[in-house]
Write a structure and sequence with these properties.
alpha/beta, Rossmann fold, eight-stranded parallel beta sheet
Length: 260
């Protein structure tokens, strides 16, 4: 990952910045895309100086088709892309516990369509390399009431989109992965109802740990990455209960094994 660039879409939150730091430690150049009004220029300069890599910060309105097309053209003309990390539906800030989408003015569906357009448009360039990566950060709901209806639809679409990409690219050199960095404080009560599998209270994982697991799993070619042993156990206990998570695609590949 020395010379090509990694794009992080939705890099402005705690998790997005942690992902950027982890990629920078791998000595890979970065394009940090803020999908809200937050400016990442100072953060980008800091990473560039610390790790001696090229880091560009861009603000992109996913509701603006002209901006998206201009961004795509710039990327195709000026950069070689090795990896695209899509973090538009999930921030999971430890302090705020909110999604990046809640910081934006446009609706979830508009943001999803913009991110999908960008991904499909850049795929020919990404596929041109012998090995490359697409990763989607997707919050996994352990209880239906955890997310708003709009966010439920957005997450379901992002999940189905990832599965579609995985199928479309399975014979290429592009590795497709999804990360479920679910905040787990909200399910303490559910665990109590199941007889308290763990005696101690569950704490949300630090963004740096989630980022390290996400990037290392991506580079290893893992398809499903769930940081934290407790998260992995609860994922398997609860995935069939959240049927709305599969509203776009009913089937779930039971053969998927989460990255450790």
């Amino acid at each position: 990952m020395n010379s090509p660039y990694t794009i992080i879409l939705g890099a402005e939150g705690e998790l997005g910045r942690a992902l950027a730091r982890e990629v920078a430690r791998k000595r890979c150049n970065l394009i940090l895309v803020s999908t809200t009004s937050i400016d990442l220029q100072r953060f980008a300069i800091g990473l560039q100086l610390k790790h001696d890599i090229q880091v560009n910060a861009i603000k992109l309105d996913l509701a603006n088709q002209d901006e998206i097309h201009a961004f795509i053209k710039k990327i195709k003309d000026q950069y070689e892309i090795r990896a695209l990390i899509n973090n538009i539906t999930c921030d999971w800030s430890r302090g705020e516990n909110q999604c990046i989408s809640e910081l934006s003015k446009d609706d979830f569906q508009t943001r999803f369509r913009g991110a999908a357009l960008l991904t499909w448009s850049l795929l020919p360039q990404i596929k041109s390399l012998s090995s490359s990566f697409v990763q989607h950060i997707i919050p996994f709901p352990f209880r239906k009431e955890q997310f708003s209806t709009d966010l439920q639809h957005s997450v379901a679409k992002m999940y189905a989109f990832t599965k579609e990409l995985e199928e479309d690219l399975k014979h290429s050199g592009v590795s497709v992965s999804m990360v479920h960095p679910a905040p787990i404080k909200s399910i303490v009560q559910q665990m109590e109802n199941m007889g308290r599998i763990f005696e101690e209270d569950i704490q949300t994982l630090e963004p740096a740990l989630i980022a390290r697991k996400a990037i290392n799993g991506m580079l290893k070619g893992d398809r499903l990455i769930i940081p934290g042993l407790r998260n992995r156990i609860l994922f398997y206990l609860n995935r069939h209960a959240t049927s709305w998570f599969r509203t776009v695609e009913e089937s779930f590949d039971s053969g998927l094994q989460p990255s450790m």
